[in-house]
Amino acid sequence: MKTRLARFPFVKTLDQFDFSFQPALNEAQIRELATARFVAHGENILLLGPPGVGKTHLAVSLGVAAIMGGISVVFFTVADLVDLVQQDVKEDRLERRLHALCKPKLLILDEMGYVPLDQRSAQFLFRLISRRYQKGSIILTSNKSYGEWGDVVSDYVLATAMLDRLLHYSTTINIRGESYRLREKRKAGVFHDLGAKPVKSSPSSSPKTQGEGQSEINSRYDGL
Ligand code: ADP
Ligand code: MG
Question: Which of 57, 140, 174 to mutate to test the pocket of ligand 1 (most atoms within 8 A of CB)?
Answer without folding.
Answer: 57
